[in-house]
Amino acid sequence: MKFWFGLLFLCGGSAWTMTVSAEYDLILKNGRKITVQSYREESGMIRFQGLGGEIGISKDQIQTIRKAGENERPALDLSRPEALTPPRAPAGEEKKSAPQIAEQKKVDTPEKTAELRAKEEKEYQKKLAEMTGQLQAVRDRYAAETRGNTGSDPAFFTTEEAFRGHHEDLLSRLRDAQYKAQGLATGQASQSPPPALSAPPPYTDRQKELSDLRTQMNQLESERQRLIDEMKQKNFNTGSLFLE
User: Fold this and answer.
1) CB–CB of 223/131 below 8 Å?
2) Distance separating alpha carbons of residues 48 and 41, to the nearest angstrom
3) 3-state secondary structure of 39
4) Exposure pattern of 41-74 as b/e (b: 16+ CB <10 Å)?
5) What are 142-196's pLDDT values in tens digits?
6) E strands in the chain
7) What is the DSSP code (8-state) at residue 191?
8) Is the pLDDT confidence value at 13 over 50?
9) Residues 191, 197, 202, 208: what is their CA dihedral angle, to the nearest 10 degrees?
10) What is the pLDDT of residue 221?
11) Are strands 45-50 and 40-42 parallel, antiparallel or unpaired?
């Protein structure tokens, strides 16, 4: 009796240690399959063990769970180490990296440098010619208003109008000096001085016009000279700088 009881106990113990773990397929809604040894449901999540620890997937992402069997499509088996090993491409089909083409550094040839320099010089010369024309036009207008003629010839007041123009020019210069001494705007920009100031006499319309013409001439002459200095620094040809 003891013999049969011991044999029965040995057989029962063997059956207890040879428990077979079931496998399950988790079918996701995107068509993917994951094979796991076991799983549990907790707070709306399906949890199972993977090689990196416990993994959780929301139930909303799972379409169905069934026991593993023959599947039409291979599943991702988290219970086996090879599941994390990326499959190797067949021989001859390995993706070849595209050869890196070194970017060719742009190097300007002497001819290209000379071409760019010639283009820049022409742009400077064009700008200088335009500014010279503007300055000459203002000078001619000022000469006509103050002496009755244009050009570089000496002023001969042969008419009463020319003499009055010269007289207005002198008074306009005086007004400029008086207004500037008190920090006031000159020419067309002038206004009635504040009562606290010892106000200089106001401009006439012609005096304002002459004042503005002189201001414009001074600005054009300064800009023109600055442009000429830049051209000389670059060794550009300025051409004739003579103004009539």
Assistant:
1) yes
2) 9
3) coil
4) eeeeebebeeeeeebeeeeeebeeeeebeeeeee
5) 888 887 777 666 556 667 887 788 888 899 999 899 888 888 889 888 877 666 5
6) 24-28, 33-36, 40-42, 45-50, 53-58, 62-67, 76-77
7) -
8) no
9) -50
10) 92
11) antiparallel
Alpha-carbon dihedral sign for residues 23, 26, 27, 31: negative
- What pTM was estimated for this model as a whole? 0.50
Long-range contacts of 153-158 (CB under 8 A, 24+ apart): none
pLDDT at position 199: 74
- With contact defined as beta carbons under 8 Å apart, do 236 and 121 qualify? yes
Task: Let me know: does 231 contact 128? Beta carbons within 8 Å.
Answer: yes
Can you name the residues that pair with 76 across neighbouring β-strands? 34
How many CA atoms does the CB half-sphere of 124 hold within 13 Å?
Answer: 21
DSSP string, 42-91: ETTEEEEEETTEEEEEEGGGEEEEEE----SS--EETTSGGGGSPPPPPT
Query: What token pair was written down for 90?
Result: 């067949």
113: which DSSP letter? Answer: H
pLDDT exceeds cutoff 80 at 54: yes
Q: What is the average pLDDT value for the chain, to the nearest integer?
A: 75
